Amino acid sequence: MDRDTLQGALPEYFAPWVQELGLRVEAFDADSVTLRLPQDARLSRVGGMLCGQAMMAAADTAMVLALVNHFGAFRPCTTVQMNTSFLKPLSGQDGLVRATVLRAGKALAFGEIDIRGAGDGKSVCRATTTYALL
User: Which residues contact 53 (CB under 8 A, 6 or more apart)?
Assistant: First the structure.
């Protein structure tokens, strides 16, 4: 797997509105993918706080890319469950969205996502996910 393949999956497999998040592949390893979610006024609420909907979409997208990385290619999948906890506001900085595959079997995959401020490194959002592999 390489960064260009993972970055190229964004326009190939995701809806145009997801592409408008401006996600960029920052890093990857055997079990995880990290995306940068750029700060953008269009994704912010009062006070410049990144909205939860944008974080959840970025988390879901990052996990699909982590599965692409895990399997070595895109496999059709669908989100079955996503449990998200918002720990603190994210404002004035980009977010780093790290998705880790915990287990991937024949029919289901499980993962966790941590979103941190790119500037201060503080965790702002945690999510766990289950995907059906189609």
Answer: none
